[in-house]
Design brief:
169 residues, alpha+beta, Nuclear Transport Factor 2, Chain: A, Archaeosine Trna-guanine Transglycosylase, Chain: A, domain 4, 2 domains, 6-stranded mixed sheet, 5-stranded antiparallel sheet, 13 strands, disordered N terminus
């Protein structure tokens, strides 16, 4: 199937051992109880684009492996509600949605605690709608004191290739 300008391969179910390894990796990386989040009967399918592997869990595209990094997609609402958030002003929204990293002057609020390297949800200040998934470039205590510089690396955002692919799954 062709989506936009990139090809999506056929979907296939992961073998039980592969699925268990993926779920264990998710648990460790996101520090969540995946059984509580997803239940005990988990069916995982995988499809690929030229840039990413997309994991469809119980019919929803919830995870992706992009450049070797396993990350939640913007469709994984259950995990997005648990992750720490950087709330950005409306002036930063278009930049974030074009792939820009999150800069300290654009952040109006920090919700939750995080360490450097943790996943963050970047959301707009008006509705707190998730715009992107980022990786923290500092811990939350330091981030609260920053007046300039980068706070988070933008790795998946509304409108990117991964977003286009998962939207059509």
């Amino acid at each position: 199937m062709i989506l936009g300008m990139f090809k999506v391969s056929k979907r296939h179910f992961l073998k039980e051992k592969e699925a268990e390894q993926l779920i264990q990796e998710v648990s460790q990386k996101l520090r969540v109880d995946t059984e509580q989040l997803l239940g005990t009967k988990i069916r995982i399918e995988q499809t690929e684009t030229q840039d990413a592997k997309i994991f469809i869990i119980n019919g929803k595209p919830l995870l992706a492996r992009l450049n070797g990094t396993l990350l939640p997609t913007l469709k994984f609402e259950e995990i997005l509600s648990l992750l720490p958030k950087l709330i950005v002003d409306m002036g930063a929204v278009s930049h974030v949605c074009n792939g820009a990293n999150v800069m300290a002057p654009g952040v109006v609020k920090i919700k939750g605690n995080f360490r450097e390297g943790d996943f963050l949800v970047i959301a707009d200040e008006r509705h707190e709608k998730p715009l992107a998934i980022g990786i923290a470039l500092t811990d939350s205590q330091t981030a609260k004191t920053l007046k300039h510089g980068k706070m988070a690396k933008n790795i998946h955002f509304v409108g990117d290739k991964l977003w286009a692919a998962i939207k059509n799954i």
